[in-house]
Amino acid sequence: MQLALEIDLSAASLQNQVFKQIHGLIVSGRLKPGARLPGTRALSEQLGVSRNTIILAYETLTSEGYLESREGAGTYVSTTFPDNSLSVASGSNHDATYHKPVHLFVPVADDKKRSVPPSEIVCDFALESTDPACFPRSVWRRLTNWRMQSSKFNLTYSGTPKGLRELRETLAAYLGASRGISCTPDQIVIVTGVQQALNVAAHLFVRAGTTVAMEAPGCRTTADLFRAYGAHIAPVPVDQSGIVVRHLPQSRNGVAFATSARQYPMGVMLSASRRDILLNWADQTDSHIIEVDFDTEIRYQGSPPPPLKSLDTHGRVVYVGSFAASIGPGLRVGYMVLPPHLVDPAVHAASLLDHGFPCTGVPWLEQAVLNDFIETGAFEKHLRKIRKTYMARRDCLILALQKHIGSVQINPVHCGTHLVWELPPDFPSAVKLQTLMLKQQIGVYTLRDQNIGDADYLENCDRYLLLGFAALSETAIEEGISRLAKAL
Amino acid sequence: MQLALEIDLSAASLQNQVFKQIHGLIVSGRLKPGARLPGTRALSEQLGVSRNTIILAYETLTSEGYLESREGAGTYVSTTFPDNSLSVASGSNHDATYHKPVHLFVPVADDKKRSVPPSEIVCDFALESTDPACFPRSVWRRLTNWRMQSSKFNLTYSGTPKGLRELRETLAAYLGASRGISCTPDQIVIVTGVQQALNVAAHLFVRAGTTVAMEAPGCRTTADLFRAYGAHIAPVPVDQSGIVVRHLPQSRNGVAFATSARQYPMGVMLSASRRDILLNWADQTDSHIIEVDFDTEIRYQGSPPPPLKSLDTHGRVVYVGSFAASIGPGLRVGYMVLPPHLVDPAVHAASLLDHGFPCTGVPWLEQAVLNDFIETGAFEKHLRKIRKTYMARRDCLILALQKHIGSVQINPVHCGTHLVWELPPDFPSAVKLQTLMLKQQIGVYTLRDQNIGDADYLENCDRYLLLGFAALSETAIEEGISRLAKAL
Predict the structure, then answer these.
(1) pLDDT per residue over A5-46, tens digit each?
(2) Computed from CA positions of residues A403, A408, A413, A414, in that sequence, does the dihedral angle turn out positive or negative?
(3) pLDDT at residue A106 above 50?
(4) What pLDDT was estimated at residue A105?
(5) Residue ranges of the HTH gntR-type domain (chains A, B) (predicted)?
């Protein structure tokens, strides 16, 4: 690396200047023990001084114990220092003097922090958790190696703004067959995940005062996001057939956020008639629907219901797909399917958020390997495997609840990775139960965490407990529920 | 994959329902020629009908020519269809009927579009272009393979919100030694690049009416970005010593955007005294500085100047680093160095933009391999190589200009990948020259593209031509300049 040194060529003793500045970098902790120094030739070229000057400065630093040279390997900062008064502590201490509170555009949701550190939870029925051990790593590695061998300039090249063409073609074919969504690859924009897609959609549809209808209970981070764009959130209740469409706001140019295949977090499916009403509402109020399809692939029974996008005849729906549930959130690839006239504005919005240059925000390698993963059928095979595994865990959880608690009221879990349990009337509230369980080092979840800002609703929602099952072994599930029952 | 079929078990002829729906998927183009159908057993499980029903439906479709079965490999959609009236054209045609204009939060910068398609430009002196052929692909591949072998759950796991710890440690050490920035790994947040970092910074500091001081000429996409957050952009002129600090706005709680090491696009370095004045201005007006260090590593002479961050004693500076110039924009990894009290708010802002879940927006693999690339010294070696290559191209460009044009007035190019040429008074304007050159299929650039909204400034800026050199071979540079001279 080039060291941050500045030499005054007109001043005396260049060698001393080099010595002093490298010494300064070492004692201030900027140059860390074990760090490799640049070669004497490179440094002399950088500073415009003779190589001999650098050699002499290095020798002095070495004789004083700050540097050590390793035979044939170069010069390094010593790992043992000449004096103990050395302040190797790093970090700008002066920064600590400045503590002006920051007025965030949106508040930090600190109430989402747990009262018990996650490390102390031994059995966590966490929501939106999946089991990374199910992922076929060796297949992914093989596909990665194969792509790396033919990578040429793709690794560092900016690529196209919509994302890898191949992947968009594969997704268009996949969506046609598995979701009934008819779209061209040009209507697809690859993004880093659902959250980025929602930001793009917010850029397209939301400004100060725009009404965003959201399912309640719903995804609070999504409500926070839309609020950051100045939206007014209109919570719309959810029943056993999904969002209660007669409560949709009637303001014009609005937005509705919908998880139609499986409402998050209640797990219910939007009924066919409500699908039609929701689409009509969008047309009549000149509004748009942002449809997020998060975990439809993790389906245990029946066919996935038709997405709103597949029924959309007026270009009102932006469909957002994700691999966070099916592959894992670490992949960082998602996609949007847009009506044709919204594609260019969406690409522009994405470039404001992420790209800057005309390139996609997702590295080429992840896009290419994901394409091959789908195309070779490995994704399908993986889905079959996790469906089987997660279904066994779901059944184990239901059986454990019946065994240890007795009769339990549970929303059907045809799809997804958690169940919603309506607590019996004589049970303590969900929030109390959560606190009780935390003392047992068990993580269970309530609808409070999914509150999107409707105070009335909060009072009624305390009768539901949410339990994620996909990331836990059957043994852990059995043990967790048995502890839960004992603590009651 | 699971097909999007819906079976009414109470209705007659299940087999006919399956037939009709698969037929519908094929003729509507949703299920494409060559697509593999799910196995009969899997489909019968999905739909809850007998396997025989599926087999019979498949057989009918096969006999009618819609499907073909390949020995031992399953059933596929035919690549040759039974009738020519088949509409295989995909894409929702109905979407085309809806063409309501979209009111974007910010305007699409369509004036940035070229009048000649890029494919017709044979010699493009594009700005911010580097040569992907210089990148050590085999080293990167080796490091990737090595990381893949030990990947375990990292590939799909969400990771930590700030980014890979190892990489943040490596960056902290690198920044200490090469930039004189003293920071801990905890002050670093990994992002997908400069653009995402700017969005995070905008969330922290910008709301409706906030004054953002920007160098003029400057980076227009950055101005667009801040405007999208409601900022009022205050253009501040740039001279040979960088941003003219006496023109900084005096409003409180403002922001200044600074490219201190090498002003973009003028290529000048911010003088030491102005660095101090800029930092004092931030303190006195309760403002923050967003410092973007884009291409300091590509330095041909002398040491890089100390970043504002290394001189910041009051936590006023957010430093943004990138690998887009040194490695390539396709990598999609950048980072922010924040004062300690701003780290948590920045992580929260980043989670609104991208993460959603508590995880970083950059895939693990890119972070891990980048870490190894820096740690093993391969990055340093790569930098030495591109410095040499790009310096030769810079020198070739200057020589070609002198040879074909004569005496040329050029800002010093100690650093970076383009030069700024002040046209002689008798030359046509830069914009005219650009049009002239496009007819010769040569891309040259003007300050108009870097206009951040100061109309007065525009009249004076037409005497500068910008020429990027890093991505062009010496032969191409010589040829391009010779054509330029002939066209004059």
Answers:
(1) 777 777 778 888 888 888 888 888 888 888 888 888 888 888
(2) positive
(3) no
(4) 45
(5) 12-80
CB of B415 closer than 8 Å to CB of B299? yes
**Amino acid identity for residue A335 in this structure:** Y
Contacts of A1 in chain B (CB under 8 A): 174, 177-178, 379-380, 383
Q: Tell me how many domains chain A contains.
A: 2
Q: Are B308 and B171 in contact (CB under 8 A)?
A: no
What is the token pair recorded at A278? 């929701």
A475 with A389, same domain: the answer is: yes
Q: Is residue A6 part of a domain?
A: yes
Q: Distance (Å, rounded) from C-alpha B194 to C-alpha B217?
A: 19
| Helix/strand/coil for B299 | strand
Read off the pLDDT band of A108 (50, 70, 90): very low
- Whether B105 is covered by a domain: the verdict is no
CB count in 10 Å sphere of residue B402: 13
B267 DSSP 8-state letter? -
pLDDT at B110: 42
- For residues A58-96, one letter each, b for 16 or more C-beta atoms within 10 angstroms of the residue's C-beta and e for the rest, the string is bebbeeeebbeeeeeeebbbbeeeeeeeeeeebbbeebe
Q: How confident is the model at residue B90 (pLDDT cuts 50, 70, 90)?
A: very low
Q: Which of A67-81, A334-348, B127-141, B366-380 has the lowest mean pLDDT?
A: A67-81
Residues B242 and B325 in one domain: yes
B315 in A contact zone (CB under 8 Å): yes
What is the distance in angstroms between the Cα of A299 and the nearest Cα belonging to chain B? 9
pLDDT digits (tens, 9 = 90+) for B449-461: 788 876 566 666 7
d(CA B214, CA B182): 26
Q: Which of B121, B119, B127 is nearest to B446 (CA)?
A: B127
- Convert the pLDDT of each residue in B188-201 to its tens digit: 999 999 999 999 99
B430: phi then psi, degrees, rounded to nearest 5: -60, -40
| CB-based burial label for B364 (10 Å; 0-12, 13-18, 19+) | buried
**Sign of the torsion formed by the C-alpha atoms of B347, B350, B351 and B354:** negative
Residues 6+ apart with CB under 8 A from A13: none
Any alpha helices (H) in B50-126, and if so which ranges? 51-63
The verdict on B359 touching A (C-beta cutoff 8 Å) is yes
CB atoms B192 and A344 under 8 Å: no
Q: Domain for residue A30, yes or no?
A: yes
A405 vs A488: CA distance, rounded Å: 9
Cβ proximity of A354 and A196 under 8 Å: yes
Mutate to test the interface with B, among A25, A134, A155 (most CBs of B within 10 A): A155
CB contact at 8 A, A76 and A68? yes
Angle of helix B51-63 relative to helix B14-27, nearest 10 degrees, comes to: 50
Q: Which of B336, B352, B379 is the last residue of a domain?
A: B379
B198: closest chain A residue by CA: A353
pLDDT at position B121, please? 81
Is A469's pLDDT higher than 60? yes
Q: With contacts defined as CB-CB under 8 Å, which chain A residues touch B272? A: none
Which residues span the domain enclosing A127?
A: 110-133+384-487
Q: For the domain that residue B471 is a member of, what is the CATH number?
A: 3.90.1150.10
Report angle CA A213, A219, A223 to the nearest 5 degrees: 50
Distance from C-alpha of B357 to C-alpha of A106, rounded to nearest angstrom: 17
Neighbours of B164 (CB within 10 A): 23
Write the CB contacts of B396 (distance below 8 Å, at least 6 apart in sequence): B469, B474, B477, B478
